[in-house]
Amino acid sequence: LQMLERQVVGGEQAKNKDLKEKHKRRKKYADERRMQLVTALQQSNEDSSDWVLLNVYDSIQEEVRAKSKLLEKMQKKLRAAETEIKDLQSEFELEKIDYLSTIRRLERDLMLFQQLLDQVQSLVRRDCNYSNLEKIKRESVWDEEIGCWKIPEPVIQKTRLP
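The line above is the sequence of KIF17 protein; the predicted structure tokens follow.
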């Protein structure tokens, strides 16, 4: 019965010593290759979670400790990223408040200058080219090089009656 069992357990190739030797070599090569991969991963990136997955542990406690350390590292990275996000958001909020206050101030200044122009326009002589503000706006040109408007020179047109 034992003799029949030994013949059947390995199938047809149970007594083939070459095949057994080939299996041993493949297993040995696979174990060596796995160890090379593990050492390469440990050297290249010890923080990687893949290393924890490929590592073989002697006990569950070792595995728990290793994964706990990895979890702590990831939590530190997460906290650092969250604080950086909060800092960026607060910085953005401060800039936004500054821009809004600048816009409000410029709008008030614009309203002041518009009211001044409306008051002063009635005092400008009718024979001056500045009596028509719309025409002056159309003739004004923005100069990119010096960063200001070039407006036409004031001219008084004297009309003489014959």
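Note on the example: The chain has a mean pLDDT of 82. Residues 125-155 form one domain.
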